[in-house]
Amino acid sequence: MKKIILVFLAFLAVSCADNKKNEAEQPVQDTVNASEEPEYRVLDSKFINKDSLMAPFAEELANFSEERYSEIKPLIFDQNIPEIQDAILSGALTYEELALFYLKRIQKFDRNNNRSLNSVIFLNPNLLKEARAKDQASNEGQKHAIFGIPVLLKDNINTEDMPTTAGAVALQNNLTGDAFIVEKLKENGALILGKANLSEWAYFFCGECPSGYSAVGGQTLNPYGRKILDTGGSSSGSAVAVAANLAPVAVGSETSGSILSPSSQNSVVGLKPTIGVLSRSGIIPISSTLDTPGPITKSVVDNAILLSAMTGQDPEDPTTQNTAVISNYDTPLENSSLEGKRFGAIEGLMEDSLYVRAVNDLKNAGAEVIIYKAEEIELPNFLRLLNLDMKKDLPAYFQNYGGELEVANVEDVYHYNTQDSLARAPYGQSLFEGIMKDSATEQEFTAVKDTLRLNGRAFFDVPMEEHNLDAVISINNYHAGYAAVAQYPGITVPMGYGEDGAPRGLTIFAKPFEEQQLLEWAKEFETVSQRRISPENYTD
C-alpha cells in the first residue's frame, strides 16, 4: 500500500513543487492515494463493540423516539454552539435531548454496520445524568457558551469515569483523574461525551500502520470516503466524529500535524495553538517540546468557544505560566476583518486549484496576498527529538498522571505487546524500537532542539519580514513540521474538495500567541468561502 512513511514529520518536503528534489529525503505524513482502497489488516476493534459501548444508555435510547430525533435534528445537525444554545434557551430543546441526539447517531453510525466509522472508543456512563443536571441549572446566572455542550476527548487525554488508553491494549485499565483542560471544561459547564479513537500512541508507534488505527479502537474511517480516503492522524476519531455529527466539538492533540491533518482531511476546523496557551498536564505525551491539545469543530466560532473553555494557568505545566489567560476567544469574532492584511502564499502550492481559489477568496475579502518562493530549509534530527522526548516524557506521565498499570516506560509497553503481537501490534512497533535504541547527552539534545527551533522560525520569519506578512497560508498539514518546531500556531478551515472527493483545508500560520488573529482571519475566510459540506452518507 502506498501510504505513510512516518507520521509526525508532517512538513511535506518543504513546499511541494518548491523543493521536489528533497521530497524523497523528507518524511511525510499520512498520505494515501485516494484511487487505491487502503489494505487494512484490522478493521473492527477486538476489544469493544456497539452493545458494550451503548449499554449504559439502553433504556433512555429506547424511549428516545425516531419522531423526536427528527423533530430536534434541524436544531442540532450542522448547527454551531450559539445556535444550539438559542434553541435550548427558547425551550425547543434540552441538554438531555442534545446528549441523546449524539448518542443516537453514535449508535447508528459508529460501530458494527456497513457505515461504521469507529471514531468513538468510550462513552461517559454519567452523560445523561449530568445533562439533566445542566437542564435544572440552565437558568442560573451567566454561563460560558460551552455550558451543557457535549465534548469528545481524544483518548490520550485523562478524564474520570473512562480509561485513557492512547488506543493501546497495555493501557486498557489506565483509570485516572481529569487532565487540567478537562477540569477547565467541567468548570465551564461542558459535558464530557466520551473518548475518541486515534492513531495509536498518537501515531508514534508503528511506522507502517494506517492513520486512524489503534488496537483498542480499531480502524477509524473517513466519512467522505469510507475505506477509500485517509482519515489523517493522529486525532482521527476527533475529526471524524465532528465531521459526521457524532459530536458537536472535540479535542485533539498535536505534536506535528496531528490536529491539522485529520481536520483538513475530514472538512472541519482545527486549531493547533501555541505551546503555553493550553495545559498538557494529564495528557499522554510524545514530546514535551512540541505537544499541545487543541479544538476541532465544524465552525470557527465553535473553535473559539472550545479553546476559551480550556484555557488557564496550570501550576503543573510551566509553559502556561508565560502567558496571561486570554478570555476573549469565545467572543463572536464580530470585529474580524481581512482588510489590509498581508498573507504569504507559497509559489509551489499555486498549482493546486483549490488553493488558488482560496487565495482569490482572501483577496476578494480585502486581503493582500503575496506569492513567494519558499526557502529550502531542512529539519535535521526531527525524529530524534521525538524519540528522546518520549523516552523521558512517557515515564513521567505514568508516574505523575497514570493509573495503576504494569507498564512504566516504552520498553515495558514494547515487551507487553510482543506477548500477543497479532492482537496488540499487528503492524509492528518500529517507532517504539527506534525510541529504545536512541540516546543522547543533554548537550546533544539541547543542540537538536535549538537547531530545529531556529530552522523552523527561519522558514516563516524570513518571508514574513521580507514581505511584511501577517501570516503564511498553506494546505492541510503540509508545513506543520516547521510550525511545530517554530512553535507557531496554525488553523485549518475547509476550502473545498478534490476531484476524488477528498476534503482539503486552507491552513493559516501566524506568530506565537496570535490565536485571536488566526480565529478572526479564519472566520472571515469561512464566511466568504462557505465551502464545507457534510458527508452525504451521514446526513440521516
Describe the global form: globular
Cα-based radius of gyration, to the nearest Å = 21 Å
Strand order of the largest sheet: 1-3-2-6-8-7-12-13-11-9-10
Percent range of helical residues: 25-40%
**Biggest sheet, open or closed, and with what strands and sense?**
11 strands, mixed
Average pLDDT level: 91
Distance between the termini: 33 Å
Description:
- This protein has 540 residues and is of the alpha/beta class.
- It contains 19 helices and 13 strands.
- It has helices spanning 50-54, 58-62, 66-76, 81-89, 95-109, 127-137, 180-187, 200-203, 236-243, 260-265, 300-310, 353-364, 382-400, 410-418, 421-424, 430-437, 442-466, 480-486, 515-529, and strands at residues 120-123, 150-154, 191-196, 213-214, 218-219, 249-254, 269-272, 292-297, 342-346, 368-372, 471-475, 490-497, 503-509.
- It has an 11-stranded mixed sheet, sandwiched between helices. Strands 4-5 form a two-stranded antiparallel ribbon.
- Helix 11 (300-310) packs antiparallel against helix 19 (515-529).
- It is globular and about 60 Å long.
- Mean pLDDT is 91; it is low at 1-35.
Task: List the main descriptive attributes of the protein structure presented here.
Amidase_dom, Amidase family protein, AS_sf, 11-stranded mixed beta sheet, 13 strands, alpha/beta, 540 residues, two-stranded antiparallel ribbon, disordered N terminus
Topology (elements, then pairings):
Blueprint: H1 50-54, H2 58-62, H3 66-76, H4 81-89, H5 95-109, E1 120-123, H6 127-137, E2 150-154, H7 180-187, E3 191-196, H8 200-203, E4 213-214, E5 218-219, H9 236-243, E6 249-254, H10 260-265, E7 269-272, E8 292-297, H11 300-310, E9 342-346, H12 353-364, E10 368-372, H13 382-400, H14 410-418, H15 421-424, H16 430-437, H17 442-466, E11 471-475, H18 480-486, E12 490-497, E13 503-509, H19 515-529
Parallel strand pairs: 2-3, 2-6, 9-10, 9-11
Antiparallel strand pairs: 1-3, 4-5, 6-8, 7-8, 7-12, 11-13, 12-13
Helix pairs in contact: 3-5, 5-6, 11-19, 12-19, 13-16, 13-17, 17-18
